[in-house]
């Protein structure tokens, strides 16, 4: 079921959205060569705690997970695409890091992700991240009343495929509201004019996941959470929570 939010609810959802943006900024600021992924998680935790927000990631245990998620962020490095567990791995020069974070405040949830490099960046990584951001922007631009889910999916997929990248199969965006994962699903590739019609009051997490090597396959780590590219190439993941309004898309997780 898709819950349509009122104007007031969408305004209220800006609060957790802003906290997510601040937590991501703190994690990114903390990231440097020699800093551990646990340090990035701590930086995000401090922001959530300071705002009085709770984490929808911490303790989250979907059907596929062998253990509850132990962090407030997912930290996915290099060939890790999404769902990386923040651990004692220390960042190295040239790493590509994706941080995904959620916050719950006032009974509403926000969900967003950023990708960036640490130290001296590889040009190929910068291009991958730029393309992921362009795909996200294209998906957001298509998130307007009268369009359909397939229009968002097509916009994202076209940017990724045109650049020659793979798109992670099986995973994509989702509705956001009182909980983190709600209907409808928002695929990262699809046919225009297909799927559910977009209406004012829908709130969607839009989240392209790109694979540099050009294939779509992934594998799961022994930890049961971290999803990595099958070909070992690097991946990027970016995400915003976006409200569909009569005036067009409103990014609720903007800084
Ligand atoms: Mg997310
Ligand atoms: Mg999400």
UniProtKB/TrEMBL annotation:
Residues holding a divalent metal cation 1: 100, 111, 239
GO molecular function: initiator methionyl aminopeptidase activity
Keyword Isomerase carried by entry: no
Residue ranges constituting the Peptidase M24 domain according to the UniProt record: 12-246
Catalytic class of the enzyme: hydrolase
Chain sites annotated for binding substrate: 83, 181
InterPro entries registered for this protein in UniProt: Creatinase/aminopeptidase-like, Pept_M24, Pept_M24_MAP, Pept_M24A_MAP1
Keywords on record: Aminopeptidase, Hydrolase, Metal-binding, Protease
Domain of life from the UniProt record: Bacteria
Cofactor note (record): Binds 2 divalent metal cations per subunit. Has a high-affinity and a low affinity metal-binding site. The true nature of the physiological cofactor is under debate. The enzyme is active with cobalt, zinc, manganese or divalent iron ions. Most likely, methionine aminopeptidases function as mononuclear Fe(2+)-metalloproteases under physiological conditions, and the catalytically relevant metal-binding site has been assigned to the histidine-containing high-affinity site.
Role description: Removes the N-terminal methionine from nascent proteins. The N-terminal methionine is often cleaved when the second residue in the primary sequence is small and uncharged (Met-Ala-, Cys, Gly, Pro, Ser, Thr, or Val). Requires deformylation of the N(alpha)-formylated initiator methionine before it can be hydrolyzed.
Record's subunit section: Monomer.
Protein name: Methionine aminopeptidase
């Amino acid at each position: 079921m898709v819950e349509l939010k009122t104007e007031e609810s969408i305004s209220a959802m800006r609060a957790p959205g802003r906290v997510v943006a601040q937590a991501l900024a703190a994690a990114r600021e903390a990231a440097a060569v020699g800093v551990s992924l646990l340090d990035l998680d701590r930086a995000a935790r401090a922001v959530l705690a300071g705002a009085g927000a709770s984490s929808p990631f911490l303790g989250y245990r979907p059907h596929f997970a062998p253990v509850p998620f132990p962090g407030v962020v997912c930290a996915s490095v290099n060939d890790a695409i999404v769902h990386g567990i923040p651990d004692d791995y220390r960042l190295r020069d040239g790493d590509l890091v994706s941080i995904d974070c959620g916050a719950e405040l006032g009974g509403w949830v926000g969900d967003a992700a950023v990708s960036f490099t640490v130290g001296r960046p590889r040009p190929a990584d910068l291009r991958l991240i730029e393309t992921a951001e362009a795909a996200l922007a294209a998906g957001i631009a298509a998130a307007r009343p009268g369009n359909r889910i397939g229009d968002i999916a097509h916009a994202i997929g076209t940017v990724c495929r045109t650049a020659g990248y793979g798109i992670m199969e099986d995973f994509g965006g989702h509705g956001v509201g009182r909980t983190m994962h709600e209907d409808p699903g928002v695929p990262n590739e699809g046919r225009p004019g297909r799927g559910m019609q977009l209406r004012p009051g829908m709130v969607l997490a839009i989240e392209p996941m790109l694979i540099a090597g050009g294939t779509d396959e992934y594998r799961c780590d022994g930890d049961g959470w971290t999803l990595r590219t099958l070909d070992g190439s690097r991946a990027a993941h970016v995400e915003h929570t976006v409200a569909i309004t009569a005036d067009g898309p409103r990014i609720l997780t903007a800084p």
